[in-house]
Amino acid sequence: MSSDLNRREFLAALGIGAAALTVHAEQNGATPTRKIKPIRGSWFEFQHHATVEGVDWNPALVRFTAEQWEEKIQEIAGLGLRYLVLMSTALYYRAFFNTPIYAKWQLACADPLEAVLSAADKHNIKFFIGGGFYGDWTSPGIITNPKDMKERLQAMEELVSRYGHHPSFYGWYWPDEAEINPYFSPEFIRYVNTCSHVARQLKPQAPIMIAPYGTRHTVNDDRYVQQLDAMDVNIFAYQDEVGVQKSTPAETPRYYETLRKAHDRSQKAKLWADMEIFRFQGRVYHSALMPGPFDRILRQIEAVSPWVDEILVYQYLGMMNKPDSAAFAGSPESTKLYTDYANWLHRRRA
Q1: Which of 125, 152, 253, 286 lies most in the core, judged by the most C-beta atoms within 10 Å?
Q2: Are 43 and 313 in contact, with CB atoms under 8 Å apart?
Q3: 50: domain range?
């Protein structure tokens, strides 16, 4: 924005838009909330799986010490985030913890999982631990391959044995997502329920999350509601797909309203948002991820707030950095997004 006046006018316009969304929702029988929600969590990783996308922060994360991981967790908590979703505990047939399944990633921090969970214990962060990537994360067959599943379930047992004492080991996340088009495939449902069955034995009270994509294709009908009922999942954090340019903030309210109606019918799992705060530097999926413009991100927040229980983002790491951070990972633009959001959050709380 070019001036404080323009910024105030923009924020006022956001309020008008939110009110209009609420009226629309009430007229159409859904159950929205009136309040624009803050960001409550983020995805998290030790290395970004798509190397070309993570060029601005992967090298920094390799060099992070245990002290820097704690600094980053403290920084994230200081911005009001309460949930982190660890994308993977293994990647490219290397593990981020000691396991006989794979050789270990060579990182400056000998045990990054211990470092972040210990820090999260101190700073009141709840981690969802990812059950991936065991096998080739680019292959659709990763959810059906028996060897991959065996390794995935073995890893879950080892993770609970090694790290389950941490209060911050809060829940599970199954990262090998399948597209909703407009329904989940039977193979995906079996994959989810197989993982969840073992997870319930290991940590019975731990909530389980998935983050479906294809959100723009969702429907509210009996078949979709039956699929929600059939999956042993506590939280569906649907991707808004704005960063990957499959949706716009003007379109997403319709998608999330449909989902709200379906989840209200099912009454089994919570409806959260997985909101994409990035943009691509060049071609989608073939260039570096960069922080999205703050005005677009505010529109995204406004769009999903009436319909979801919580807003999580993909993702803090790489896209946001406190300007004086001792654990900096990302492009210089990431300090602007951090500052813009922190200033908005401060005004919102005032």
Answers
A1: 152
A2: yes
A3: 4-349
